[in-house]
Amino acid sequence: MICCVGFLDKLRGFWPGGQPLIPREPIVYRAIGVVRNRIRESRTDGWEDVRSDIILAEELADALDGLDGFSHVIVVFHIDRVPEADRRLNVPLRGVGTPSKGVLATRSQLRPNPIGVAVVPVLHRRKHVLRVKGLDALDGTPVLDLKPYLPLYDSVPDARLPDWATAPRGE
User: Fold this and answer.
1) Rounded to 5 degrees, what are φ and ψ at 158?
2) What is the C-alpha to C-alpha distance for residues 133 and 146, in angstroms, rounded to an integer?
């Protein structure tokens, strides 16, 4: 551990003014839109058929120009209804005999920062409203950003997963 601390001290010297490696100040974002759907209560599955409207601020309607030709979009959203007290470093996984895992190794909503990311199919756009399917966000969830899904950059065909991530889920 001592060698690691020394390494971090040397690395810190590369930062201007000896600033800490991980900023401590809050980072603030403004929502660009909101999710509208019929889902009011949190759930862990059953999102695949949920249709949601992402309603952008009207002044951002032109920001959607060109998105029409994309089949999928990446939605970045603020998981605003998970109390800070519920956030965890480790979360239990569903399945018989499956030990808990670090929250950053899961898709759990109980994250240190309540940021959600989902790749969803685009059904259609009308002015400043984008209709999508399968977005795992509750009605009223603030949307932080939208990005087109680009298979060349966003797909990793030879990605590896640990055995526990591919095991069938037990109920």
Assistant:
1) -100, 25
2) 14
